From TrEMBL:
Coiled coil: none annotated. Pfam families: Arylsulfotran_2. It comes from Mycena metata. This is ASST-domain-containing protein. The lineage of its organism: Eukaryota, Fungi, Dikarya, Basidiomycota, Agaricomycotina.
Length: 456
């Protein structure tokens, strides 16, 4: 049975909702934490920084599934009290893009970031204007403590225009700084143990391995692939979230199979899926290891995704971007063992989520700095209403097992116990006799061992 102890947490940033912001859910759908004050976000994750686990995310303007499909904002690191402790930015006029914020090991003290910047360029060789504009894809590794750029790489300096599958004659882009041609569209960065970089270029349908001096070591996929396929299903189209796996012998990715481009919708495959590819850098061959298909809609044309494939323990979680679906698979059998929707269960509904990550309450302990929230209704004996209902919630607290209602005649001594009830969902309703309450009421949050975690 999946998640028998209800410890799994899903980290998401839903877009297209009334109050966008980072959200954590349990596998039951119960809300754990939400903070709309941070605004539109992407890539909520749990990563190691300074030797400890932290929440990380991107905040800013832009949306992965609409418009230019890039963003301008900042990367944030939060502690387990949900307080921002670091604000990181790429060194770029348009700040940091939404697609990637990874803190690589082993030191976990730098940030891998994507950024975009339109630059003037002659695009006549591929059917564009001579005085054209090119959307330059940047990757940067930034020292988190100082903000110093350790590594800077740009697509315009290394990737030929002819590698792109984004047809400029159809898109009618590249005509101005406000309408640049997005030839490459980098959407993920990883780093190997030797210090080389792995980047995913959606619009070139290529994964590039880049050396520390910036040269391209090899290409996987696209027009100029350096690898020979073994067997079927090694191809991918418009992919996202390329990551090294299994001691850098495999690459996981999300094979979108389709794309929304300016002027056209492209469908190359009938279904999107997560894939693990065996990459033999000595023999220069690639072979499919695992493929994770969506369910129950596996035969629907899953177009226009922006998503990820991410292992967690003995499972693999797959998110589907513009389709608000999440599936969890048995890593070995590839079977779907859990599925959920973040918005209406339809194709493109307006609710989307760029990436979804898993963690658990065994790993992440949320300890909000704010106290539990309490609201009291009814409790007016003059109208013969003899029951008072106390509503209590604690946004972000991951380990509350029960609540105790205390009362007292003055604010300095609210100590008489009225009742203890199990926590029930994000907000717990506690009904008590109005006559059992004195002038002051306090609610304490307790963990499973009876230890007081917080007090209203």
């Amino acid at each position: 049975t999946y998640d028998p102890d209800n410890s799994t947490l899903f980290l998401v940033c839903p877009a297209g909702v009334a109050q966008p912001g980072p959200v954590i859910y349990k596998s039951t759908g119960e809300l754990v934490w939400a903070d709309p004050t941070l605004g539109g976000c992407d890539d909520l994750n749990y990563q190691t920084f300074e030797g400890e686990g932290h929440l990380t995310l991107w905040v800013g303007s832009g949306l992965a599934g609409s418009g230019a499909q890039v963003g301008s904002g900042f990367a944030l690191i939060l502690n387990n009290q949900y307080e921002v402790i670091r604000n990181i930015s790429a060194v770029n006029p348009d700040n940091t893009d939404l697609h990637e914020f990874k803190i690589p090991g082993p030191n976990n003290d730098t940030a891998l970031l994507t950024a975009y910047n339109p630059v003037p360029l002659d695009l006549s060789s591929i059917g564009g204007p001579v005085d054209g504009w090119y959307l330059n894809s940047l990757i940067q590794e930034v020292d988190i403590a100082t903000g110093r750029v350790i590594f800077n790489w740009s697509s315009v300096d290394h990737i030929a225009l002819t590698e792109s599958f984004n047809n400029i004659t159809i898109s009618k882009t590249g005509t101005s700084q406000a309408n640049p041609w997005d030839a490459v569209h980098i959407n993920s960065i990883d780093k190997d143990s030797a210090g080389n970089y792995l980047i995913s270029s959606r619009h070139c349908k290529t994964i590039y391995k880049i050396s520390r001096n910036g040269t391209i070591i090899w290409r996987l996929g696209g027009h100029l692939t350096d690898f020979t396929p073994i067997g079927n299903e090694t191809f991918f189209n418009w992919q996202h979230h390329a990551r090294w796996r299994n001691n850098e012998t495999q690459i996981s990715l999300f094979d979108d199979g389709a794309a929304v481009l300016p002027g056209e919708d492209v469908v190359n495959e009938v279904v999107a899926s997560g894939k693990f590819l065996i990459v033999d850098e000595a023999a220069m061959t690639v072979e499919l290891a695992k493929r994770y298909l969506p369910s129950p809609s596996k035969f629907v044309s899953c177009s226009y995704f922006r998503a990820l494939t991410e292992p967690y323990g003995d499972t693999v979680v797959v998110g589907y971007g513009l389709h608000p679906w999440v599936t969890v698979h048995d890593a070995s059998t590839q079977d779907v063992i859990f599925s959920a929707v973040i918005g209406p269960n339809a194709s493109v509904t307006g609710v989307s989520n760029y990436r979804v990550f898993q963690t658990s309450t065994d790993v992440f302990v949320g300890r909000p700095s704010a106290p539990p929230s309490v609201a009291i209704v009814n409790g007016n004996t003059t109208t013969n209403n003899t029951t008072t209902t106390i509503y209590v919630s604690w946004n972000g607290a991951t380990h509350v097992a029960s609540y105790t209602v205390l009362t007292g005649d003055n604010s300095a001594a609210v100590e008489r116990k009225v009742v203890n009830v199990p926590k029930s969902g994000f907000e717990t309703a506690v009904s008590v006799s109005t006559e059992s309450l004195s002038a002051y009421v306090v609610v304490e949050a307790l963990d499973a061992g009876g230890r007081v975690l917080g007090r209203s």
